[in-house]
Design a protein that fits this description.
Elements (H helix, E strand, L loop, with lengths): L1 E5 L5 H10 L3 E5 L10 E4 L4 H10 L3 H10 L2 E4 L1 H6 E5 L12 E6 L9 E6 L17 E6 L3 E5 L4 E5 L6 E6 L2 E4 L10 H10 L2
This protein binds glutamine.
The site of glutamine has 12 residues, from helix 4.
Length: about 200
């Protein structure tokens, strides 16, 4: 199985390492033609406005839209923003989004004061694909200037919320997965395993 990681900017290397730890053929993607033979794609965290501008400059925006319409794609943090159909607090003119997830994201939901934080998340879906060697219980999630999902369409499944019925921080809609945090920075392979199983169909 071949999974690409969009490598224009941001935390792509950490995703590659996680995929390699699962025995997946992981590739850095910078050109439209590199999308052709992929089974699935990860859009990493970083800066969504920068990544969006680079995607436009590299002629990747339409190829990415075509890819994500059909093949499994996972957006983490800035990648979740890019996969959203709608973002609030867009500056004038907005920012280019790939879209696909019927959600509205708030790009800097937690504000400037809370730059980053870590929290144990209850993610029941991960049990579907976990292996005996995986950790048990909550997923230790790292949030860095994180977005949150503030609206979901009818076909969107909520995968995780912050504790005490807090904001939605992970969603799935068919072949599309989104997480507001950075699973590639946690010492836990369960999220990548979950996505690899989506990629395997
Ligand atoms: N808030 C950032 C953005 O708008 C995302 C931060 C991240 O990916 N760690 O792109």
């Amino acid at each position: 199985m071949k999974i690409g990681v969009l490598a224009l900017q941001g935390a792509f290397r950490e995703h590659i390492l996680k995929l390699q730890a699962l025995g997946v053929d992981a590739r850095e993607i910078r050109l439209p033609t590199q999308l052709d033979d992929l089974d699935a794609l990860i859009i990493p965290g970083g800066e969504s406005t920068t990544m969006g501008k680079l995607a436009v400059a590299f002629g990747l925006l339409e190829p990415l839209r075509a890819f994500t319409r059909e093949r499994p794609t996972w957006g983490t943090c800035a990648g979740l923003i890019l996969l959203a159909d709608r973002a609030v607090k867009q500056k004038q003119g907005g920012q280019p989004l790939i879209g696909g997830l019927d959600i509205t994201v708030d790009r800097n939901y937690f504000g400037r004061q809370v730059d980053s934080f870590e929290v144990d998340l209850d993610v029941p879906a991960l049990a579907e694909t976990a292996r005996p060697e995986d950790p048990d219980g909550p997923f230790h999630a790292i949030f860095i200037r994180a977005p949150a999902v503030v609206e979901t369409g009818p076909d969107v499944q909520v995968i995780a919320r912050l504790p005490e019925d807090g904001p939605i921080v992970a969603v799935r809609q068919g072949h599309l997965l989104g997480a507001a945090f950075h699973p590639e920075l946690s010492d836990d392979l369960r999220f990548h395993r979950y996505f690899a199983s989506m990629a395997a169909g």
